[in-house]
Design a protein that fits this description.
The chain has 263 residues and is of the alpha/beta class. The protein has helices at residues 17-28, 40-51, 66-80, 107-134, 159-179, 200-203, 206-215, 225-236; strands at 8-12, 32-37, 56-60, 85-88, 138-143, 184-191, 247-250. Strand 5 (138-143), helix 5 and strand 6 (184-191) form a beta-alpha-beta unit.
Amino acid sequence: MYRLHHKRCLIVGGTTGLGLAAARRFLEEGAAVIVAGRCAEKGAACLAELQALGAAGFVACDAADSGRVAGLFAEACERLGGLDVLYHVAGISGRKHGDGPLHACTDEGWQATIDTNLRSVFLTNRAAVQHFLQHGGGVILNMASVLALAPSPRYFDTIAYTATKGGIVAMSRQAAARYAADHIRVNVIAPSLIDTPMAVRAVHDQAIRRFLETKQPLARGPGRPEDCADAAVFLCSDAARFITGTVLTVDGGWCVSEGQYGE
């Protein structure tokens, strides 16, 4: 049985990493999918693969630009014949812009991370809710991080990134409470360290790898993008019809494990 049969889904940040893995799984589960991303070249590169799995399309969009987001939703709804699911995955680490510990984070690092990670979620979620209010409901799934719930500053000390992920959790729960009566479900996935292109620095750091052996004991290392994709399929499907306002940690045990530092 296809868990997303006939679901019309927009995945923002769907051209690489966690978003691309989700796009693959959504298509395998019977969904029609539009992926959005800032880079047209990445979109073209992934589209052939996705179209081999099902009904897929790509729209180039900077999700931190309100005008572009409005255009994205108009085009996605036109091409899909409507919209049932928004999955917002897009985000950055912020390090290259100047994010870091509170005492060292630059103004530029703070603003770039806030705009890309939090403003973009506000804009896409607002557009989705506006659409769903007119069409009888829908599903929103946002991507946060376990760092918003269980900080680990020795190896992961980026204040702006953590603030944006905490903001996503708070915003999603507020929206879930406000729009439940309108049949709009809003949930969050909060992953730990997953082996993606954005996490290359951490994944290949040997001290972090040793830390993950006890911090993420289910894998004894980083998770796989498919771990989050499978969770996303569930939360976006009708099997989760009675679930809203939840933050699902997909973390290999991170939040319940102390983790051991090497000397």
